[in-house]
Design brief:
By secondary structure, the protein is mostly beta strands. It has no helices and eleven strands. The chain is globular, with a radius of gyration of 13 Å. The model has no long low-confidence stretch (mean pLDDT 96).
Length: 126
């Protein structure tokens, strides 16, 4: 069992930056690949970024590539999402998730993930 708690959301002006954190419980954090997803009201949850269990491989949605960076610290059981050059279209609830899957082609899909956090809200004003 893994419990995930996100933090770091808030209100920021367009062009600004935020760093989201996701703290995981349990001693097996390093066995899981981690992902970030986001969701706005009335829309499906969409993939943002993912990172392999070792941190050696990262994956991004085209919409955030070059602006967002995912990273992890297995010693601190934490995964991060550094978000730069934010735009109003990035406004959403952001969720982190953990998966035991080793198939990287599946990291883009909600159904791949075994555990989810409660989310943190990000609002980007124009």
């Amino acid at each position: 069992q893994v419990q995930l708690v996100e933090s770091g959301g808030g209100l920021v002006q367009a062009g600004g930056s935020l760093r989201l954190s996701c703290a995981a419980s349990g001693r097996t954090f390093s066995m899981y690949a981690m992902g970030w997803f986001r969701q706005t009201p009335g829309k499906e949850r969409e993939f943002v970024a993912a990172i392999s269990w070792s941190g050696g491989n990262t994956y991004y949605a085209d919409s955030v590539k070059g602006r967002f960076t995912i990273s992890r610290d297995n010693g601190k059981n934490t995964v991060y999402l550094q978000m730069n050059r934010l735009i109003p279209g990035d406004t959403a609830d952001y969720f982190c998730a953990a998966t035991s899957s080793r198939t990287n082609s599946r990291y883009y899909y909600v159904g791949t993930y075994d555990y989810w956090g409660q989310g943190t809200q990000v609002t980007v004003s124009s």
